[in-house]
């Protein structure tokens, strides 16, 4: 039987799984220099994460119902520890690609079952409260790993900062905690294959999160090399923390807004915040970079994230699982493909041109999607689930 501590233990495990994902982010430039490569190769290694995420989201939506929730969390924790260990043993860009592939698989497994498992461990089965716990713990983990690595690197350069060992220790404790959590199989004969779907009217929300997470991917993968030009590379982890975890501050406000309005607000904030952080990165103004990433986080992990996901679930009817998978599929495509393209531009034309092209594309994309959402908004309001 679940105890009062069970939800907190699962939240701790989920935080440690995502903690590992951006743990190495402040060292991306160092790995690239050791491998003799540039921004494009770094973006490719960074995007290996999505190669791990997408197949699980596409093909294994029914896995948790067949084998149970707890085994997937245990495997995800094990993969996060293996990825960290690999980076300690062989700190190269090639190893980074392999590590991020493992991290992508682990994160997708945890995402596939985290909210459902949390709901089962809560005595009242409160789905909204479960989603809040999962969102908060994973968002904190995504940013905290990078921030702690940056903090330890301020003491001196290292390929094995103490944050790596801290993750191995805490993840080991989380593994023991999850091992003792109760579990139940939902449908041992259910289908493994559950393809994503896009209910009528949901595609603009998927495109909105694609644009938002493209901005996040650029900050994590490419901003460290740009900041290094101004002697600020050690602060890149804090920019990652700001662009991800600070979105928690805006989630309560996003929940009080209608999903369409929240998403539209996020699309208005996103290009403005990007302009500030890009200007700060180009000029070496750390305060502008941190303020820009904080503002971008309000959209990326606040208004667009929660507003878009809520709208998709509202429009999905009985297909919420498949519709959510479709939403996150577009999110992770945004997290990878635009970053690779921008990295190629940075290598060939310089970081300033790459930032300008990405910014212009982001602005155009936000305007097009916002117009589409504004046109669709009355239909969302009239949907039976919105009454």
TrEMBL record:
Residues 6-387 form the Major facilitator superfamily (MFS) profile domain. Keywords: Membrane, Transmembrane, Transmembrane helix. One of its GO terms (cellular component) is plasma membrane. It comes from the Bacteria. GO terms for molecular function: transmembrane transporter activity. Pfam families: MFS_1. The chain crosses the membrane at residues 39-60, 72-91, 97-118, 130-152, 164-182, 203-226, 262-280, 286-306, 327-346, 352-375. Its main location: membrane. This is MFS transporter. It comes from Pseudomonas alkylphenolica.
């Amino acid at each position: 039987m679940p105890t009062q501590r069970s939800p907190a233990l699962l939240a701790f495990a989920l935080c440690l799984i995502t903690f590992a994902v951006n743990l190495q982010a402040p060292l991306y430039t160092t790995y690239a220099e050791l491998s003799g490569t540039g921004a494009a190769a770094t973006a490719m290694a960074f995007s290996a994460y999505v190669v791990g995420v997408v197949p699980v989201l596409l093909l294994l939506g029914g896995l948790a119902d067949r084998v149970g929730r707890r085994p997937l969390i245990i495997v995800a924790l094990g993969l996060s520890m293996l990825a960290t260990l690999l980076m300690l043993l062989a700190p190269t860009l090639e190893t980074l690609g392999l590590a991020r592939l493992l991290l992508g698989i682990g994160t997708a497994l945890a995402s596939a079952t985290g909210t459902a498992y949390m709901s089962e461990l809560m005595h009242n089965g409160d789905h909204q409260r479960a989603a809040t716990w999962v969102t908060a713990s994973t968002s904190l983990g995504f940013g905290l790993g990078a921030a702690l690595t940056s903090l330890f690197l301020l003491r001196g350069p290292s390929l094995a900062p103490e944050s790596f060992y801290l993750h191995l220790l805490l993840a080991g404790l989380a593994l023991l905690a999850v091992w003792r959590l109760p579990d139940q199989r939902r449908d041992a004969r259910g289908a493994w294959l559950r393809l994503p779907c896009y209910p009528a009217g949901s595609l603009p929300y998927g495109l909105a999160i694609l644009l938002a997470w493209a901005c996040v991917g650029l900050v994590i993968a490419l901003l460290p090399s740009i900041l290094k030009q101004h002697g600020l590379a050690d602060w890149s982890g804090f920019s990652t923390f700001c662009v991800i975890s600070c979105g928690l501050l805006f989630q309560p406000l996003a929940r009080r807004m209608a999903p369409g309005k929240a998403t539209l607000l996020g699309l208005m904030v996103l290009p403005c915040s990007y302009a500030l952080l890009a200007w700060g990165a180009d000029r070496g103004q750390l305060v502008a970079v941190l303020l820009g990433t904080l503002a971008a986080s309000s959209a990326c992990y606040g208004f667009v994230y929660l507003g878009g996901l809520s709208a998709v679930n509202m429009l999905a009817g009985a297909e919420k699982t498949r519709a959510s998978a479709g939403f996150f599929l577009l999110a992770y495509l945004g997290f990878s493909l635009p970053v690779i393209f921008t990295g190629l531009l940075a290598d060939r034309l310089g970081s300033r041109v790459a930032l300008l092209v990405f910014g212009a594309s982001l602005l155009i994309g936000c305007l097009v999607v916002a117009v589409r959402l504004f046109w669709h908004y009355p239909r969302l309001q009239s949907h039976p689930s919105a009454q």
